[in-house]
Amino acid sequence: MSEENQELTPRQQSILNLIVHTYVATAAPVSSKALMEGAGLNVSSATIRNDMAVLEEYGYLTHPHTSAGRMPTDKGYRYFVERLLGDVELPTDEKNTIRHQFHQAKLEMSQWMQLASAVLARSARGAALVTAPQIGQPRIRQLQLISTQAHLVLLILVFQGGTVRQRILTLKEPMEQNALSQAATRLNNVYAGLDAAAIRTRPADLTDFESDVLQLVLELMADGAPPMHEVYRDGLTEVLQQPEFISQSEARALVNAMEEPSFLMDVLSARVGTVQVVIGGEGRWRELSSCSMVLARYGVEGFATGTLGVLGPTRMPYGRAISAVRYVADLMSDLVSDLYGD
Amino acid sequence: MSEENQELTPRQQSILNLIVHTYVATAAPVSSKALMEGAGLNVSSATIRNDMAVLEEYGYLTHPHTSAGRMPTDKGYRYFVERLLGDVELPTDEKNTIRHQFHQAKLEMSQWMQLASAVLARSARGAALVTAPQIGQPRIRQLQLISTQAHLVLLILVFQGGTVRQRILTLKEPMEQNALSQAATRLNNVYAGLDAAAIRTRPADLTDFESDVLQLVLELMADGAPPMHEVYRDGLTEVLQQPEFISQSEARALVNAMEEPSFLMDVLSARVGTVQVVIGGEGRWRELSSCSMVLARYGVEGFATGTLGVLGPTRMPYGRAISAVRYVADLMSDLVSDLYGD
DNA sequence: TTTAGCAGTCAACGGCCACGAGTGCTAACA
DNA sequence: TGTTAGCACTCGTGGCCGTTGACTGCTAAA
């Protein structure tokens, strides 16, 4: 617990590096002897022990009890990610596989998201989570009114960018489909291409019915929050098998996090193009103290962006996770800008 | 293990009934002494033991080891559900609360589904799962083509019944929005109101582009399977806290079942209006041997139906679950027929 | 600065025993 | 014939203890 955060010697760095790697692989504390035998630092176990003691003093390692090996602390993981990991990239063949999969998927956002979560889960060995791209300042492209039953009408609202939302409205008195189409056309002529603010200030003489519809449209535009179900998940069950989740409280925290992804948004301050790593809840989420997340925002900044990432135990293959998240996020960004770019 | 399935005496029935109730409440094997003290059958523990032995011989009870109390077998639960439970109903005040909640929700299928899953989870104390109503034999109501970018067009397909699906298609050469709208109108005039079979046999002279679109429409109509994300879940974390899920393999089976609800469809043979109870996987799902499900189909038979239900440990409050599932299914059926009825 | 050697620590494991909850059986009883 | 009291028996649970072995920390020599 020395307060001085002084530079580590090269050997100390390799030791930390090796401990992180083998601990991630084995989930068991790493002993000095194992390190000596396993890897190419040609010193005795005693020397390694000395350095381990230093690393522990600095707060990068702990051991669960006196006669146990060492394991990384959150601070240790942080150092590893920022100083030792370097720029990791997915192996080229893996990249090609992924790119190929995206290529042969059907041209549909929902398919891409599902694919992205599957790829992330498999490739980063964690629980993957992908949210739909949210339009920043939604603009109407077109609306449509469809009669379904005597007093009921289906309103379909297509936003600039292709997001579609629907709502049912009830009529005071029945209307013909013709009349509905006419109203829709009139509204489209006036309001297509505008955002909510512009719609409010644009005067127009509307029938009562038309202004009711417009009211509903504004409501739908205001509901910025992503519909809960526009979230794709994958790999949760595999991650729950990891030994850290035999304790049901840890498992619960993870499942909760996956079920309520809105909190991800709170975490995620990153810009499109960068990957953010949150280790052990980083103080703010005590329940997630044994979980880490690797997150990125994807899409087109200022227009439509979504979130995607991987959750797992702090003992996570950060290299794989970071490179996979970055690669998939870039891929999704390209897709979004190809499709929805104006 | 006597093969004769003879009638139980009234007292044996009460004993089975009581054991199921207290076992559901406590999750611990029930002893003869506890039964004698707890409930109003005025006989000694020895008599109860005799009857317990008989019930065990018939296969309705087991005990985990010699000196432990009794607990119900799957067959015991089955007997309980079918012979002892009778017609259970949700308490009126609970019904009112639920009805009220549905009343003040917005008129949107997705909201209702979310609400239904929340209500089920809370009311039946289990993990709830609600799938969107699927159109039986989908018919086109209207299609729409919207240009998003040079070579990309968004196809929106509205089915009879209000389900909306969308897909992006790429053009060989750019087209104006006007030309797209015209094509859509032409296709609508010819094909609106038809199902896939009728579309295939209805001749029409179409441009290349129009028949491409039609091809895509047929594909979308053929994808009968519900989009994975049109499934609402709730209450999973609460159920995972139950003691039977401290074993990670049981927990995994449950999480799997919740993530891959398509297998529910296989199970579900019930008609709209009846509730189906599957206890302990009922032989077919070995992984779910310690789970039960209470399921129902809702909607309008032959037109649009969805699935909804509750998963939990076999040690489940069947009375609550069955009545809640039935009530919510009826509610949802009413909503579907109100909205989408033709 | 590194290393060999050694003492010290502590979790894990297995054996042992006492406890107590519950049953099954038998014999007496209504 | 059905019910009950009593008692022997079973078996899981939990505490206790000694052994083992995997590590570390320290010290003194290279």
What oligomerization state is this entry in? homodimer
Number of domains of chain A: 3
Q: Biggest β-sheet of chain A, characterized? A: 6 strands, antiparallel
CATH topology of the largest domain in chain A: Beta-Lactamase
Corresponding CATH architecture of the largest domain in chain A: 2-Layer Sandwich
Which CATH class of the largest domain in chain A is shown? Alpha Beta
Fraction of residues of chain A in helices? 40-55%
Shape of chain A: elongated
Q: State the distance separating the first and last CA atoms of chain A.
A: 54 Å
Q: Which two chains touch over the largest interface?
A: A-B, 48 and 48 residues
Write a structural description.
Two copies of one chain form a homodimer. Chain A is an alpha+beta fold and 342 residues long. Chain A has three domains: 10-84, Arc Repressor Mutant, subunit A; 92-135 and 227-340, Beta-Lactamase; 140-223, Heat-inducible transcription repressor hrca homolog, domain 3 (Enolase-like, domain 1). The first copy, chain A, is 46% helix and 19% strand. The first copy, chain A, has 13 helices and eleven strands. Chain A has helices at 10-26, 32-38, 45-58, 74-84, 92-103, 109-124, 177-191, 196-201, 208-222, 236-240, 248-259, 262-267, 318-340; strands at residues 61-62, 71-72, 127-131, 134-135, 140-149, 152-159, 164-170, 231-234, 275-279, 291-300, 304-313. In chain A, the strands form three sheets. In chain A, strands 3, 4, 8, 9, 10 and 11 form a six-stranded antiparallel beta sheet that branches. In chain A, strands 5-6-7 form a three-stranded antiparallel beta sheet. In chain A, strand 10 (291-300) and strand 11 form a beta hairpin. In chain A, helix 1 (10-26) packs across helix 3 and helix 1 packs across helix 4 (74-84). The longest helix of chain A has 23 residues, at 318-340. The N and C termini of chain A lie far apart (54 Å). The mean pLDDT of chain A is 88. The first copy, chain A, binds a DNA duplex (30 and 30 nucleotides) through residues 29, 31-33, 43-47, 49-50, 52-53, 63-69.
